[in-house]
Amino acid sequence: MAAHRHHPQAGLRPPRHAVDPRARRWWTVQALLTLSGPLLLTAVALLVLALLFFPGALPWLGPLLLVVLVLPALGYLLVMPRLRYRVHAWELGESSVYTASGWYRQRRRIAPLSRVQTVDTTRGPLQQAFGLATVTVTTASTAGAVRIAGLSDADARLLAERVADAARLIPGDAS
Amino acid sequence: MSTPWRTLDPRTPLVHCAWLGAPLGSLALTALATGGRLDTRAWITLGVVAAVFACVTTAGLITWRRTRYRVTADSFELRTGLFTRRLRAIPLHRVRNVDLTANPVQRLLGLAVLRAGTGGHGGELSLEALARPDAVRLRAELLARAGARDAAEPLLAAADLRRLRYAPLTFWVFGGVLAAAGAVWRVLDGIGVEPWRIGLVRHAFEEFGRSALWLTVPFALLAVTLLGVVGAVALYAENWWNYRLEWADADTLRVRRGMFTTRSVSIERARLRGVTLREPLLLRAGGGASVRAVAGGLGNREENRRRSVVLPPAPRAEAVRVCAGVLGEAEGPLGGPLGRSGEDGAADGLRPHPRAALRRRVVRALAWAVPLPTAALAVLGWLLTPVLLYCAAGYALLAAPVAYGLARDAYRGLGHGVRGRHLVVRSGTFGRETTVLERRAVQAWTFTDTPFGRRAGLVTATAAVAGGEDGYRIRDMSADDAAAFADAATPGILAEFIVPPVPR
């Protein structure tokens, strides 16, 4: 959990703790399953079809597929997990919980512990495979839910406990 | 001794007969259109209508027979169900709002639907339907147990015929005509009448094609506008007849309105987070505004939008006054300099946003509004007729200044500030909204930016509240000030994460 090398954003320093390094692999697999994989498959299918039935179309179809499907797919696959890993971070402060997330559009969210309603820990099948977990801290407002994805199991358990404890200790109205 | 169970009004099942009107009416129309000869399709429709009617009426009768309610010493209970008996109870002290509504048929029968909500999700009991006097008595009974106190200055606003002049400044002028035309078309289509087969319609269209178009087209547009205005005024009247906004007691804000369908919404003060002053472009041009409460416990987002309106389009000064009344302050956060139309960003006391926000808006407006339609027109003109080329040039010349003007207006609309115990946020050009939030209602802060925004030094801050739209955005504020402003508005939430200013 090294300190983050990141410029201050919106006058806020970045949260102290990075997420688990294995999150990079998790995001890569996610990218493959959701966006990059389907794009690459489409490109391959179109190429095979063109080879079989319209060989004449290859000179223009090849570059077109490369620019429209293959390059974006590879770019997303390679760039997104790295950027995400640089951005995603979390910190449990004295009175608030603070997270940073996103890769292109970046988001920093701060919710006071006095407003915490529930702390949920979820593990999807993919996350389980990588030993990761997501902790969601909810407040009464749907625009105020703090979600930290890509924590190691141990960190997640510890964080959930500490948030729950802190929320109990700090008096406040969770409405 | 237990409190006896009470039943719903015996007239309740009669209401189900009402929906017979539409299908029977359309069948009658069909019969008229076809000269009394009904085809197989019509007979099938009639059979289906009869069967459905039998089912619905039976279900209605059973529901009516099996529904019982009572108010005991500490709870409001409702028993329903034929095979699975269901008992629902809400503790009386949890009852937050009690609304009475009635659709036209229920009104005709002297009935009302009573809904008692706890403000939480799904915590609502509804009784459909009671005789109106019973419903009024029951509401008083329920609210009395909630331990209410009387308000100092109850009435905030009442119906005013002069406000009707703002009705044409709403979307419904054209949208309403289109919606009505669509509905008529579907009804005709549904009963098997093809409108273009009717001699009168075809004749009218042929005549229209032969007439002098430069005269008849503007005339038709004028007619549609007039129709829309009439429709908008009628809709406004139906929605806002007998309108009354008042503090029913010190802790309950109540809106009552409606001509045929009466609606009544109660908002608990503890769940009121603020107000939104809404000034859509047209209404703003006419010097009007409407007001919406930012409150929790009004249902999901959609229901919240519908039920939270506390003032229909009205003169802006009055809207500002109602805002202050809802917030419970003599001089509201929107009073003072902001009470003027707020055209000049700096003079109204709200902090303007950096010039980069203006650049952003101008670039976006020009990029979206000008090149694409111009190119489309030009390509069509190149392919079809040179007239369209002139249209393309004309469009570009006209759209660019309009887009620029709108972008400037959007920028002038941006502003944020702290007023007493409130946070004020303003943005928008087509739908300008000034939202006043209670500072201590803010649940969390979110700061969002993109690489472009970071380079321009802009960030969007979102204040989360429990109610209304949930998140209220301060768009494109200066990245350097964002955290400091949020910290000043809601002390204690983010102070520990702020970097101390570095001396340059």
Automatic annotation (TrEMBL), chain A:
Q: Which residues are listed as membrane-spanning?
A: 31-54, 60-79
Would the keyword Calcium turn up in this protein's UniProt record?
A: no
Is Membrane one of the keywords UniProt gives this record?
A: yes
What domain of life does the UniProt record list for this protein's source?
Bacteria
- Pfam families hit by this protein: bPH_2 (PF03703)
Classification via InterPro entries: YdbS-like_PH
> Sorted alphabetically, which keywords does the UniProt record give?
Membrane, Transmembrane, Transmembrane helix
Record's protein name: Membrane protein
Q: Where would I find the YdbS-like PH domain in this sequence? A: 85-161
TrEMBL record, chain B:
Where are the bilayer-spanning segments?
43-64, 169-188, 212-237, 362-381, 387-407
Any keyword Nuclease? no
Q: Which domain of life is it from?
A: Bacteria
Write the protein's name.
Membrane protein
Q: Which UniProt keywords apply?
A: Membrane, Transmembrane, Transmembrane helix
| Domain YdbS-like PH per the UniProt entry, residue ranges | 64-141, 247-321, 411-487
Membrane as a keyword of this entry, yes or no, is yes
List the InterPro entries hit by this protein, alphabetically.
UCP026631, YdbS-like_PH
Concerning Pfam families, the annotation shows: bPH_2
